[in-house]
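Hi P.,

Sorry for the delay on this. The queue was packed all week, but I finally got your sequence through. Input first:
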Amino acid sequence: MKEVLIITNYFPPEMGAASNRIFQLAEGLQTHHFKVSVVTPLPNYPNGKIFDSYRGTFKHTSTEQQITIHRLWLFASNSKNKVLRLIAMLSYSFSLMWFLLWYKIPKTVIVQSPPLLVAFTSVFFLRSKKRKLILNVSDLWPLAGLELGALQKGLGYSLLKKMERFNYKHADLILGQSLEILNHILSIYPEKETFLYRNYPNSKPPKIIETQSTSKLLKLVYAGLLGVAQGIYKLCQELNYSTLSFHIYGSGAEKHTIEAFISKHPELDIVYHGEVSRPELHKALMTYDIAVIPLVDRIYGSVPSKIFEYARLGLPILYFGGGEGEHIVKDNKLGWVAKAGDYNNLNHVISTIDPSEPRNSTFKNQIQQTALESFDYHLQLNQFVKMI
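Then the structure:
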């Protein structure tokens, strides 16, 4: 049985797209008869505090669904202070160095990037002609950080660029979640072996049930990270509530700001539901008309995995982020698109939607069928396994 190690910053019981994506990859490889192990920090995301059941330990190892999981200590923080966040990343990098020096590492290793520093640490210590290094790139750092305003050009940015190139150079195979990511990598190393590995879900598709509501208000839902890049607080401020009600699920840096805004504006039809489990969330999402997928700014290389998840549920999408994700929604007729960053255009698009359209079971079934035919997790995984 071939062994493979996955190095990642996010893994269940943490919630979110990154955690789900890596768990699904680990589970998929295990079903293909790989002996899978995972190295990850002690659970702390998104609140920046180590989960109660894992506190007071430097390392925790367990076997879950035949996957061996090594959880390493870090200084957990989700502070907006850049120094504290750097310390958090460095702490996990040091724990990771210790692990890589003292544990037997398989011949095949998959490294998740970003975080760029953690990926660099892994590649630096594991690069070897006798080992196959696979870099799984889900966002283009440091470019994404520059576009989000989290980074500025200078010495630090130049250093991160060198780390990025080092990672690409020494990886034997690079997975990218978008064509833009792969094009960027190939512009630097044209001969590098790459593979488009989208974040397709593997959940059982639910049966579509036509909504019986006759309300003229659209039930709009957002589910996911309440971070700066998603801009849900700004969305709460800018939406026109004469045509909709807005429901929010998730947690993150903007959570308390959003709760305070809702408390100060009881006249606005906004409901914050907090965090729920993935099965509960999928059940809840089926009761809404449209799911909004926003990004504050168009981020080159970013394709939110929610596109594929919602399509599999048959849930119509309102995409508000530009880039490659916008084209996927348009080309596959998964819903509506508003111009990224233009809230007037967003409200205009919403005002043109007849509530009966997203509630129609024929439309929902078409979306779900497109997902099943075009976003096939098993076909993609089978192709990837042949490359390992």
